[in-house]
Amino acid sequence: MSLPVETDRLTKRYGELVAVDEVTLTVRPGEIYGFLGPNGAGKTTTLRMLLGLVRASSGSVRLLGSAPGSPGHLERVGALIEGPGFWPYLSGRDNLKVLARYAKVGASDVDRVLDLVDLTDRAGDRYRTYSLGMKQRLGVAAALLKDPRLLILDEPTNGLDPAGMADMRALIRKLGADGCTVLLSSHLLSEVQQICDRVAVIAKGRIVAESTVAELRGDVRVKVVADPLP
Ligand code: ATP
């Protein structure tokens, strides 16, 4: 069976700057895998290369066995990577209905994902009235429409208040328990400790540690790069 994520010496250069420097990592089926590092470490650039949104300077990527640009590359992959383009004056449900048509899935899938992210009660309200946490959960709902086997989430709790963070973490754990493989980035050590099975730590574009969450505790290389939870 193909691995959800496999990269081999993945590198991105912007002129003199090496934003991502020979990143090799493997995410196994069913894992919740954390990609931990401070601002500017190269997390978003790496995730964008995985999705084919940024072309790698060198190295390779496979998601569920397929390389970016090949047919079916993102067929079973959902992603929350940039402020999703939702329509402010449409309801949450109507936003998802539009996206469902693009994803070629049905109305029952819209109800399914609204339920998964716990937005059914507010699904009829306009998107512009949603809290940031609800907007993020709607973003995850959109990523779940095509029932992905792999979910890639770029700092899904960024900007959320403590309650919104707790809701998002609970949602990610639930998705993991339901069998979805999740790769998420974060700059919060405690967050990956709470949610993830394994973690790669990235600093200045390089992986400086990769281990289980249990092994991360007390690792000085991690203390140097990871912020504690506020
Ligand atoms: P953050 O948590 O702030 O989003 P990050 O770990 O996701 O940080 P990246 O956004 O991947 O980090 O950025 C890594 C480095 O690459 C940074 O120094 C950034 O300024 C640089 N960079 C990213 N995109 C570009 C670009 N299009 N052109 C030039 N430099 C870029």
What key attributes describe this structure?
single chain; 230 residues; 6-stranded mixed β-sheet; binds adenosine-5'-triphosphate; ATP binding; ABC-2 type transport system ATP-binding protein; nucleotide-binding; ATP hydrolysis activity; transport
Textual characterization of the structure:
The protein has 230 residues and is α/β, with parallel strands linked by helices. The protein has helices at 43-50, 92-103, 107-116, 132-144, 162-177, 189-195, 213-216, 220-225; strands at residues 5-14, 17-23, 26-27, 32-36, 58-63, 77-80, 150-153, 181-186, 198-203, 206-212. Helix 2 crosses helix 3 (107-116), helix 3 packs across helix 4 (132-144) and helix 4 runs parallel beside helix 5 (162-177). It is globular. The N and C termini lie far apart (40 Å). The relative contact order is 0.19. Bound molecules: adenosine-5'-triphosphate. Adenosine-5'-triphosphate binds next to strand 2 and helix 1. One of its GO terms (molecular function) is ATP hydrolysis activity.
